[in-house]
Amino acid sequence: MSITQISVFVESRPGHLTRTLEAFAEAGIQVRGFCAGDTGEYGIVRFIVDRPDAAMALLAERGAAARTSEVLCARLDDRPGALARAMVACAQAGINIVYCYSLAATCIALSVKDIASAEAALADADIDLVDQAELARVLAGATL
Amino acid sequence: MGTPMPAPDQIDFSALPIYLPEVECTSRERIRAIQLAKLIEQVGYTYARVPWYRDQMDALGVTPADIRTLDDVRKLPFTDKSALRETFPFGMFAVPMDEIVEMHASSGTTGKPIVVGYTAADMDVWSECIARLAQMAGVTAADRVQMAFGYGMFTGGFGLHYGIQRIGGMMIPAGAGNTERHIQMIEDYGTTTLIATPSYAMHICEVGEKLGFDWASSTLERGLFGGEPCPPRLKAEIEARMHITCTDNYGLTEVMGPGVSGECLAHRDQQHIAEDHFLWEVVDPATGEPVAEGEMGELVLTPLDKRGIPVLRYRTHDLTRVTTEPCACGRTLARMQKVRSRCDDMLIIRGTNVFPSQVEDVIGRIDELTPHYRIVVDNEGGLDRMTVEVEIKPEAFSDSFEEMSAFAREVAGKLRNVLLVTPVVRLVEPGGIERTLGKAKHVDDRRR
Ligand SMILES: [Zn+2]
């Protein structure tokens, strides 16, 4: 069980992220979560959107360097310690989280090398995992 | 229609036109005889009519009578761009102004432009040279040729226009700019040949693709390029995406304009020089002494029958090498390697000579990159710093900072192996490097 993440290569210059976001807005694509990382020269921006296929088609049309990958999506309980619990579950199973970021509401996206074993570790800890279809329901009304 | 030429070894050259076979395919001996007769006459003409040259030759103690062999050209003074600039506008003209039928000027990036004037005979030579290179690319009277150069003072527009008409081809004088209109005209008028700078042709290609124009089924068969150097990788990309065959020619406003040499389809990296109109030399740029045949050096040109403004031994500052071996296309005129760098393009970075063409070669061999690049040189704390901006192709993006940084280091390493200077490599998103419509601007030297 995983969801689709879109990564876009952008230059670290004013306005470069804006152009992608405006294109999404124009096409009515809802951004459910994102994280932007930067080396000072170029950046990689990662998105969770409601319609990944439409977003990828749009990016390809614009000639952008973009690709999809699968990440896990965990829905956390809305109480103190919920994030720690998810991290501990992965750590105890020896799973290295490459990067992780929160979506709108109490969902986090986790990038790991081995999705299946991370999924098992989180499920064992009773952490709620969400797939693409469910994400739409969970995050209805939470667009960034 | 819309089918690129096959590989050179599969072309039936006997089926392709040659504009002036009695000159273009003659023996080397006869070419040299033509050159010598014209050189003797041209030096006498120049000495008698242009005070600037008379003063220069007098100062060197050389008279027209000293020119008895082709090698004697070395006794003559060199001409640099500055001579034409200092005598602005008409100081080098050899005929009364009423014999001049057309004038052009080169873009003066610094100071005054270079002004050139043509007599009717000069125009005749010029259009003949263009007719030759157009036929090297296969243009005939049946072709519809769309001009995407600007007309105006620049020599490219009118020069090509007259040469195409000389063959009987139909000119479509669209002019520069308005890319969508160009594409519409290709479709409406059944254009077979496009005249453009390679970077503008690429732009037309990309705009057409975005509009959903099907280049494969269009009537367009070829591109005649000029106005800026055409990197092989860019040419190959245009040929593949527009389904056309592209050639380019070489020339300078100071000695005529486009048409000094042109690319045939047998050797795609070389151009046949119109040797009956231009005497070529290749010299060491530092000493001015000739290099051995086939060696790289600065091209020096003496137009042999230029009447409006005679020019002796013009220093082009372009680096090339020349071969006189016969060509598979049937022509015997010497071939110069396409100019990839200029003596004055040379960047000196921490004491090392660096040519942008070297960067271009390295970039061209890396599959993950587009052919577009930009070099920025600045100075940080007294040390030269060279940054090379390169565009990654969309499919080469890896979604990992580690991998992207490792790739940038790998590109820097490949550049260092060739340049002997370690550059900073900056990865830029696809389309992030500006496509210029005129001269491709590859270098930004901020030290000046
Ligand atoms: Zn040839």
UniProtKB/TrEMBL annotation, chain A:
<dbReference type="InterPro" id="IPR045739">
    <property type="entry name" value="ACT_dom_pair"/>
</dbReference>
<protein>
    <submittedName>
        <fullName>Amino acid-binding protein</fullName>
    </submittedName>
</protein>
<dbReference type="Pfam" id="PF19571">
    <property type="entry name" value="ACT_8"/>
</dbReference>
<dbReference type="InterPro" id="IPR045865">
    <property type="entry name" value="ACT-like_dom_sf"/>
</dbReference>
<dbReference type="InterPro" id="IPR002912">
    <property type="entry name" value="ACT_dom"/>
</dbReference>
<feature type="domain" description="ACT">
    <location>
        <begin position="5"/>
        <end position="79"/>
    </location>
</feature>
UniProtKB/TrEMBL annotation, chain B:
<keyword id="KW-0547">Nucleotide-binding</keyword>
<dbReference type="InterPro" id="IPR028154">
    <property type="entry name" value="AMP-dep_Lig_C"/>
</dbReference>
<dbReference type="GO" id="GO:0016874">
    <property type="term" value="F:ligase activity"/>
</dbReference>
<dbReference type="Pfam" id="PF14535">
    <property type="entry name" value="AMP-binding_C_2"/>
</dbReference>
<comment type="pathway">
    <text>Aromatic compound metabolism; phenylacetate degradation.</text>
</comment>
<dbReference type="InterPro" id="IPR042099">
    <property type="entry name" value="ANL_N_sf"/>
</dbReference>
<dbReference type="InterPro" id="IPR045851">
    <property type="entry name" value="AMP-bd_C_sf"/>
</dbReference>
<dbReference type="InterPro" id="IPR000873">
    <property type="entry name" value="AMP-dep_synth/lig_dom"/>
</dbReference>
<comment type="function">
    <text>Catalyzes the activation of phenylacetic acid (PA) to phenylacetyl-CoA (PA-CoA).</text>
</comment>
<dbReference type="InterPro" id="IPR011880">
    <property type="entry name" value="PA_CoA_ligase"/>
</dbReference>
<feature type="domain" description="AMP-dependent synthetase/ligase">
    <location>
        <begin position="97"/>
        <end position="301"/>
    </location>
</feature>
<keyword id="KW-0436">Ligase</keyword>
<dbReference type="Pfam" id="PF00501">
    <property type="entry name" value="AMP-binding"/>
</dbReference>
<feature type="domain" description="AMP-dependent ligase C-terminal">
    <location>
        <begin position="351"/>
        <end position="447"/>
    </location>
</feature>
<comment type="similarity">
    <text>Belongs to the phenylacetyl-CoA ligase family.</text>
</comment>
<protein>
    <recommendedName>
        <fullName>Phenylacetate-coenzyme A ligase</fullName>
        <ecNumber>6.2.1.30</ecNumber>
    </recommendedName>
</protein>
